[in-house]
Amino acid sequence: MTGTALLALVAAGSAFGAHRLTRARWTWRTPRTAIVLWQALGLAWGLASIGTLLGFGVAPYGEGVIGGVTRFFADPRALSPIRIASVAAGLTFMLVLIAMLLVAVAGVVRARRRHRALLALVAHGDPEMPGTLVLDHPAAAAYCVPGVRSSKVVVSAGTLEILGPYELAAVLDHERAHVRERHDLVLLPFTSLRRIFPQSRIVGRTLDAVELLVEMAADDRARRHRPAKELATALLRFAAARPAPTPAGTLGVTGIDTADETSPILVRVRRLLSPAPFPRPLRGAMLVGATLVAVLPLILYAIPA
């Protein structure tokens, strides 16, 4: 089987794997590993899809994707119009993916800059919570504004009213986990993919699944420092208070339907109270597998078509 055919198989397999992973529940037992697997699938799908188009176009050269594309720019007249169109489609798709990622980054940066300026006007520090800003608003809100040097953790006055000191400490640890692990960067590629395919159900389910895993990863980090019951209670109090959606470019708690047993917060609460993590050797094997999935398309780029 040629390199191009294998790339097409990898692209199809990655899409099928993503479809199955959106419905999986075992990922909740090891969210960090599952996030890496999601990233590997996304990278493999993008590289394999681009490589399939390029590989079909430059197949007459018989030098694989990398060598064929190099030959194409030196002598494109050796290819038929259909082959040239395939190469152009591959290069265009690659540029679209890169451009939409840059657009998503720029949009998030602008939204965070505006929100930080707003916080400078309406929020204030609290000596009892170093590094945390208090927003004078009666609604419940707790979120972080990630950044390289200017990360902020924000809670509202309404949050201080509904949470006890231990529950508040657990929520702050959760938000700080988002900042430390840069979960905003984890979500960016999936957000940009949503911009490219806004009507795709599988892309929408993918973003929802990764967002939930990110929250679970932050829960796990907070649980290292605080009893799980404190964070679980805080989440339920937030659910009852029905917090408003978090501002653009931030990560935080959102409102849910407390009657929905499959709602993200209730799923997280059950997971916090009854953890069932995978053994470390199994997690290590999954990480090795994810790495192989991510690099496989690059290896196939060198196989002659």
UniProtKB/TrEMBL annotation:
The keyword Metal-binding applies. The chain crosses the membrane at residues 84-109, 284-303. Residues 111-195 form the Peptidase M48 domain. Binds 1 zinc ion per subunit. Gene3D superfamilies: Metalloproteases ('zincins'), catalytic domain. Keywords: Hydrolase, Membrane, Metal-binding, Metalloprotease, Protease, Transmembrane, Transmembrane helix, Zinc. The keyword Endoplasmic reticulum does not apply. Its cofactor is Zn(2+). Belongs to the peptidase M48 family. PANTHER family: POSSIBLE SENSOR-TRANSDUCER PROTEIN BLAR, SLR0241 PROTEIN. This is Peptidase M48 domain-containing protein. It comes from Actinoallomurus vinaceus.
